[in-house]
Amino acid sequence: MRGTRIVMGLVTLVAASLLGTAPTVGGNLPAKQVAIEAAKRSERVVTLGQLTGHDRNRFAAVQQAARQQLLTQTHAAVAAVEHVGVPTQPTVTASLTQQGVRVPLTPAIRGVRELVIPYRRLTGKIQNRYLPAAQRATPVAGKVIALTFDDGPDPKLTPKLLKILKQAHVHATFFQVGKSVVKYPQLSRAVLAAGHELGNHSWDHPNFAAVGTRQAVRQVARTNAAIYHATGQLPTYVRPPYGAITRAEGRAIAQPIIRWSIDSRDWAYLNRQKDVQSVVHAAQSGGIVLMHDIHAQSVAAVPAIIKQLTAKGYRFVTVGQLLGQNTLPGLEYFERGDHRVAGS
Description:
The protein has 14 helices and 13 strands. By secondary structure, the protein is of the alpha/beta class. It is globular.
């Protein structure tokens, strides 16, 4: 009988723990809460200023990571978390846990007052010394180049391009237009499923410098929502149409801006051979190539570009890999080792 009571007691304790109603310890806190409090006491406490090196661009990057984690955790609408983030006062404290960085939220959303942001979401956003070694920002070494494709997704050409890249074992970065993402969400999902990166290229391709800051921010926010609705992920990067952006827009958009160092001018040539020659001739290690997956000639040029650059010793990587995930809001990136204040 005594053995039976012990077993039944253990079963009750486990069941209560799973249900979040563990019995109290010493008549005070539940055992589960005691364990949580003990774990918190063992966490390393740092200030937000230490985490970010007092860099406002890093603060904005942590805000961005917090929003993605909130969406994952609460399944809220994108608009509901646009203005939710961590405090920006450098003296506010955060904690380094086994899973990630615990930060307070302002304001709370759906009862969530603090958030543990996984370290993988903070690569390149907080200083490396606060990250596990496996999550630290490290630009890829060697003779590498990043292919990027704008203006999609296109119902005929994007699937064809994905097939070409798969056959060549090449990953690329796609900057998609929100209006087309809404029409063809399955193609945005296919891009991510194939191991490529997905970026924001505005809602309907206006010149940001001409429409003004408010409209530019709306264009980006609307496309972020479209991409999240299609894929469950917020895009990290923004590429403004025509590469046009003002300093005020760069600050307000609060996402890393990706430009390019190798312009194929495929939109002007609409000629497969000229596209190939343009890219291969201008190629340089660490470069970012601008192309479009809405022109048949551009897509047709990709196999020859890959073949010829591979013969020259190049490896193809995504923008994130090229830059080691070390990208911050408020800055624009042209190639490896070349970044500037957005709009400067």
